[in-house]
Amino acid sequence: MTHQMTEPILSIRNAVKRYGSLHALDHVDLDVAAGEFLTLLGPSGSGKTTLLSAIAGFVDLDDGRITLHASDITKAPPERREFGMVFQGYALFPTMTVRDNVAFPLKVRKRAASEIADRTKECLDLVQMGGFADRMPHQLSGGQQQRVALARAMSFKPQVLLLDEPLSALDKKLRADLQWELKSLHSQLGVTFIYVTHDQEEALSMSDRIVILKDGCIQQQGAPGDLYNRPRTTFVADFLGKSNFIDADITGRHSDILHCVAKGAAFDVQTDNVDEIGNKARLALRPERLRINKPGVELLAAKVSQVSYLGERCQVIVKHEGLGDLLVSCATWQTGIKPAPGLEVSIGWDQNACVVLAAD
Amino acid sequence: MTQITDNFRYWILIMPALAIMIIFYIYPVLGIWQISVTEPEAGFGNYVRMVDSSAVRTSFLITFRVAAITTVGCLILGYIVAYTIANFASRLTPLMLALVLLPFWVSVLIRSFSWIVLLGRSGLVNDTLRDMGFIDAPLRLMHNELGVLIAMIHVMLPFAILPMLANMRGISDTYVKAARGLGASEWTAFRSVYLPQTLPGVMSGVLLVFVLALGFYITPALLGGGRVLMISEYITYQIQEFLAWGLGSALSVALLIATALVLLIAARFVNLRSILLDRK
Ligand SMILES: Nc1ncnc2c1ncn2[C@@H]1O[C@H](COP(=O)(O)OP(=O)(O)OP(=O)(O)O)[C@@H](O)[C@H]1O
Ligand SMILES: [Mg+2]
């Protein structure tokens, strides 16, 4: 699902934040559509928290503008911005009960007591924490604290929820459950989510749009499928899923087909931006797009050097004379062969399996 | 087996300190209890006299009043200092900490005398005010409760600052940030999120200052000039001037009990164990 950028609810223009000589944010431009689930994804130190904090108002930008509903909030204090926020580590107030934590945003807004009580209960029920209202935060498990933090962030019905790695402290199973819950909450509430994570699977499974950050710059953004299938740089291809990289010389082109030669292997690549490509190109090839077969069947001869069995999939590292090690991932029930180290095989791929990358 | 050796080690390690406490502290205190019911004759005569005496009552009243005001003063001033040191990153932080600790290296006697130099009739404060034309006659800044309070608050301030500072340094700033992100003004975030988390530190600072102030001697004696008789000075009078060992001892016992009562009452409201031991 892609969101039409008719009128963004939030836009960031040319945001710059420096810490000494380090650029935590380096000329960032970003538009967020109403109702969107936007994920900021990037390795540790890439500026995700800094960007989210700038949006929330905890970090003063050195340059740039942030507008919410077309009004400038660059200099507004955090409490005027009306975002709901879930912090890395939750930050539940330790001296208040779960109920008081969730009621807090309503109390500071001086809502009527009956409304506070109703809304608090409603939010706690929504995250299935209704039975825990009188507990203190330290009496809750990590996942329960996370739910309370979420209930607190949405109790005053903000239009935008900011979430900084809300699931990072949880174990894998619980995380998967809560991912589903967050996702269904998102569609239920119609609220805009800006979600920070450094977990690429989480980003792929939850987002409408992913923004990939590196060293304070936006590398690429798009819907999960677009990003995964058409990464523009080596960094993105490598960070989002796994990729094999092939540096090839272009020996000819024919409508949307490139003829490529790389270290003894000659093959064709189908791409729609033929004209923009010079004499050399770097290609990314997803492991699951590679086929493995009996010798002679596919394009290139190779030899299996490592096999790891993952249940429904099987990851095989094969060695090709010129191209070196290539990672192949195939459904175990599909391979006509039983890969084992030392086995002679052949590998191949479709013309449209390779993605031509821009120079980094 | 290890149980026994561990136990044994524990007692070996604790023994020297325990012996010193028993020989030089517990035993003399028991001696005082004894004197209070044997001098000048056996019985509770000293206690009866103590309860009947209006001078003793006044002295206890002054003692509690001075201790209470000192505590409030230290609490307010100390909270501000501790808050500032704990919450504002600055190159000056180590210097500030040193300035808080510095008084511990200067004896209370010297600090109290310094206040006499500052607050006396022709002390620095009065002279300066007169030279600047603010006053004609010198203000009475000492040999009264005001002088005692000024010096007491100064002497006790580190005892208030240190526990509060230790507590505040353990409070992450994300709570206040979270509160502000959820719509609270700076003041509301402080009052409803930060302040409650500092209460353990506040309580331990308050207890420390109050209990120490109850038994303080040097500073009230010097700055009060005999006019602000707190209970310890009153005891000294009984023993040194009137050789009334019995009454003096009875007063000591009363002070000890009063202090214990304060702790007991405090224990009803707060967890003393966590306040005095964990500092978190
Ligand atoms: N207060 C600060 N002072 C100095 N440098 C900072 C400060 N806050 C962040 N940085 C630096 O800015 C860069 C971006 O930090 P940021 O916290 O945004 O990273 P992140 O993407 O959230 O990482 P993580 O996934 O580890 O949370 C990092 O190199 C960090 O060291
Ligand atoms: Mg972060």
Please, could you describe this protein's structure?
Chain B: Residues 60-266 form the ABC transmembrane type-1 domain. Chain B: Its main location: membrane. Chain B: This is ABC transporter permease. Chain B: It is found in: Cell membrane. The complex is a heterodimer of chains A (360) and B (280). With 360 residues, chain A is α+β, with helices and mostly antiparallel strands. Chain A folds into two domains: 10-238, P-loop containing nucleotide triphosphate hydrolases (Rossmann fold), CATH 3.40.50; 242-357, Nucleic acid-binding proteins (OB fold (Dihydrolipoamide Acetyltransferase, E2P), Beta Barrel), CATH 2.40.50. Chain A is 23% helix and 36% strand. Chain A is built from eight helices and 20 strands. Chain A has helices at residues 48-56, 98-108, 113-126, 142-154, 172-189, 200-206, 224-229, 234-239; strands at residues 10-19, 22-32, 37-41, 63-68, 71-72, 83-86, 160-164, 192-197, 209-214, 217-222, 244-254, 257-262, 265-270, 280-285, 291-293, 300-309, 313-320, 324-331, 344-348, 354-357. A six-stranded mixed beta sheet of chain A has the order 6-7-8-3-9-10, with helices on both faces. In chain A, helix 2 (98-108) packs across helix 3 and helix 2 (98-108) runs parallel beside helix 4 (142-154). Chain B has 280 residues and is mainly alpha-helical. Chain B has a single domain, classed as MetI-like fold (Orthogonal Bundle). Chain B contains 13 helices and no strands. The radius of gyration of chain B is 23 Å and the shape is globular. The mean pLDDT of chain B is 90. Chains A and B meet through strand 6 and helix 2 of A and helix 8 and helix 9 of B. The structure holds adenosine-5'-triphosphate and magnesium ion. Magnesium ion binds next to helix 1 of chain A.
